[in-house]
What does this fold into?
Amino acid sequence: MNIHEYQAKQLLKQYGVAVPPGDACKTVEEAQAAAAKIFAVGNKLAVVKSQIHAGGRGKGVFKDGFKGGVKLAKSAEEATVHAKAMLGNTLVTKQTGPDGRVVSTVLVAAAEDIKKEFYLAVLLDRANSRPLIMASTEGGVDIEEVAEKTPEKIIKEHVDPAMGFQPWQGRKIAAALGLKGDLASQAAKLFAGVYKAWWEADASMVEINPLCVCVGADGKEKMVAVDAKIGLDDNALYRHKDIQEMRDLAEESPLEIEASKFNLNYIKLDGSIACLVNGAGLAMATMDIIQHYGASPANFLDVGGGASKDQVTAAFKIILSDPAVKAIFVNIFGGIMDCNVIATGIVAAVKETGLTLPLVVRLEGNNVVAGKKTLAESGLTLITGDSMADAAKKAVATVAK
It folds into this structure.
């Protein structure tokens, strides 16, 4: 689950991470009041930031032609004008696609006097089965770009999960970033807070880009998380009722929301062949082989290793809710999964939904003989595949006609 920038900052603030003062606003009146408060305490600049689950907001363009989902303002009046232009408007960025996202909330915050930008993230290094802290002097740009062009500028520090993040590791990272004296102490404390937030919130990733050295009103330098992004592990959300309440359903696909009700892993794509598969790895391979034979997948749909008949029926209904779907490819390899359970679910789903689209089925593995017998005796019009490649070719052929 993803949360908005303002929510990520609220969470980080609970762990002692310094963030710019500001308020999330859903109306122009709220934005006006928030901006007035910022300028009343002596700030010279405010920033108005569109809150959507996508990057590239600053370079984005609204559908009515207004440019920039992140704007600086020199007065409360100017901040209010920006908020009015953003709220209720649809912002299109590289990550949203051409449809864009409707901006329902803006963050109105103090614009810090930034002296230096860094990158910081905490995530799980699956290859080493340990938490990993990544930092770089190249803040404010995509870390992928840094990794490609100047990989030596990425600092990596693994954390022993049994010991937790140690003070010496904070000092080590600060020194590697070239920070000294009080700034190094502030940074080490901030790193510890970010790591603790990642660990205790069961986050999949915490990313601060940029993490900045800023000059305060008193002239002193300080470390501030100017932007923040947090992704949460869905499997651990039951432990965090407060974080669950941060979920913004308006930022999610309606079909993905429906799939989550049945514990189905569904992601809508832009192709025409729907996939119903058990296992994430097989699902990705299925999408690849469809692409290989000249078509595009309409979705990623993993029903898991122990799907029931009701889940399969729900999966079919979700697939058929996508008007772009022209054919369905069911690709099941039964390990834990019983192929006959899937076959029974397919028969029930087709009869309940009145399916008229081409249906290609490939079953292999546990109880496959019974599964194929169930399909053969069902009276359904379907296409079977002897192998994954054979089934994929047949699925592609149905949409190529």
The longest strand covers residues 113-125.
